């Protein structure tokens, strides 16, 4: 059976839509080092820089985004992603700052699923459930650098082999994560995976965006958010989808027109907002899965920075940074507090393997899993 993600040919379409094909300048990819893990492993970096004030540093630990700088409306570039100053802190991190999350992003109910009549038990690492692949998910792995390219579009491809049985998942999975940057201030992330036995896959990026600056003393709750979703998937009190696909009409999850996030995350009349301590939900994106389309847009009124999230997957997890509780010291010893940053994860639905009515997360030998994401930056006038 074919599922939505086994298509091809959208890259050319994306380049056309976002103007990458017409880039006039050269973007640069440069290798560097971030530091060593306790066992002596060197964490390498690749920084992609363009001529329009944007640069992004990615690293082999978790194939993560470590810094990302873009100009504000006055042309001043700032790092706008949360993170740490050393590899050891990333390894201890319970928040998945900037990481590639997998083998299965978000939660699986009690870590259990059945494939071809056989039940699998994954490692439990979030209350009664499995979150983001388990405690040693893709975010905690040291990936290898496959290729680094400068050119009109600069890029780096990371590779990781997840062996059969790792974290409890069947099948050996070969995964790549490619970051590309052209001159249009759009970071393109593309994930691919193949397997040698039937398995489940759901991979996404877990960057925390504070459009005002990662060390700004203002959070993200004044940001104006639009999500192109007419429905969302309600959850239980352990944040597992109930299976229902509910229209957003008349709920605090209706972001179809620009809405101040802070006006929604304190709406305790909604059981769903109470369960998430804010918003931590899967939005079913309008339009056709398999087609690159705009999923969401965020605008920070102070800095004027605008982030558009594009993707070709069926859904978007929007997490309003509800569990940043002031106990984490990030870059430059900055304390991260609730609502400081926003996470947008284009992906399949959480707990998809346990809901036949959700798009399938199954991957078979001979097929290629793919998920393509674009984080595109611009500024808005005052
Ligand atoms: C999840 C949150 C979780 C967070 C961990 C998000 O993707 O939706 O529930 O707490 O990741 O940092």
UniProtKB/TrEMBL annotation:
CDD domains: galactose_mutarotase_like. InterPro entries: Aldose_1-epimerase, Aldose_1/G6P_1-epimerase, Galactose_mutarotase-like. Residues 1-26 form the signal peptide. It holds the Pfam family Aldose_epim. It catalyses: alpha-D-glucose = beta-D-glucose. Keywords: Carbohydrate metabolism, Isomerase, Signal. Pathway: Carbohydrate metabolism; hexose metabolism. Its EC number is 5.1.3.3. The keyword Signal applies. PANTHER family: ALDOSE-1-EPIMERASE, GALACTOSE MUTAROTASE. Belongs to the aldose epimerase family. This is Aldose 1-epimerase. It comes from Stakelama flava.
């Amino acid at each position: 059976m074919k599922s939505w993600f086994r298509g091809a040919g959208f890259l050319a379409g994306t380049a056309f839509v976002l103007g990458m094909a017409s880039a006039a300048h050269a973007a640069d990819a440069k290798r560097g080092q971030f530091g060593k893990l306790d066992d002596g492993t060197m964490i390498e970096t690749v920084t992609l820089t363009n001529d329009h004030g944007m640069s992004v540093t990615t690293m082999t630990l978790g194939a993560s985004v470590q810094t990302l700088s873009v100009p504000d409306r006055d042309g001043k570039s700032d790092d706008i992603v949360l993170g740490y100053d050393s590899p050891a802190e990333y390894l201890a991190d319970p928040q998945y700052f900037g990481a590639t999350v997998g083998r299965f992003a978000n939660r699986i109910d009690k870590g259990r699923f059945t494939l071809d009549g056989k039940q699998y038990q994954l490692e439990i690492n979030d209350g009664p459930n499995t979150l983001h692949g388990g405690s040693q998910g893709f975010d905690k792995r040291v990936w290898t650098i496959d290729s680094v390219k400068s050119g009109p579009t600069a890029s780096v491809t990371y590779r990781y082999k997840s062996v059969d049985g790792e974290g409890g998942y069947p099948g050996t999975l070969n995964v790549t994560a490619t970051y590309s940057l052209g001159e249009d201030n759009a970071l393109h992330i593309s994930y691919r995976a193949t397997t040698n036995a039937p398995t489940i896959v759901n991979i996404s990026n877990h960057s925390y965006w504070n459009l005002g600056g990662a060390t700004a003393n203002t959070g993200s709750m004044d940001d104006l958010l639009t999500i192109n979703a007419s429905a969302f998937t309600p959850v239980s009190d352990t944040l597992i989808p109930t299976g229902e696909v509910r229209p957003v009409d008349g709920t605090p999850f209706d972001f179809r027109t620009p809405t101040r996030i802070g006006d929604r995350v304190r709406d305790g009349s909604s059981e769903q907002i109470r369960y998430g301590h804010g918003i931590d939900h899967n939005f079913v994106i309008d339009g056709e899965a398999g087609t690159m389309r705009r999923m969401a847009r965020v605008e920070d009124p102070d800095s004027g920075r605008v982030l558009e999230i594009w993707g070709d997957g069926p859904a978007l997890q929007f997490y309003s940074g509800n569990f940043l509780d002031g106990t984490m010291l990030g870059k430059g010893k900055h304390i991260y507090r609730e609502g400081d940053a926003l996470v947008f994860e284009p992906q399949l639905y959480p707990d998809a393997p346990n809901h036949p009515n959700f798009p399938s997360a199954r991957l078979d030998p001979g097929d290629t899993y793919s998920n393509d994401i674009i984080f595109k930056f611009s500024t808005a006038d005052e």
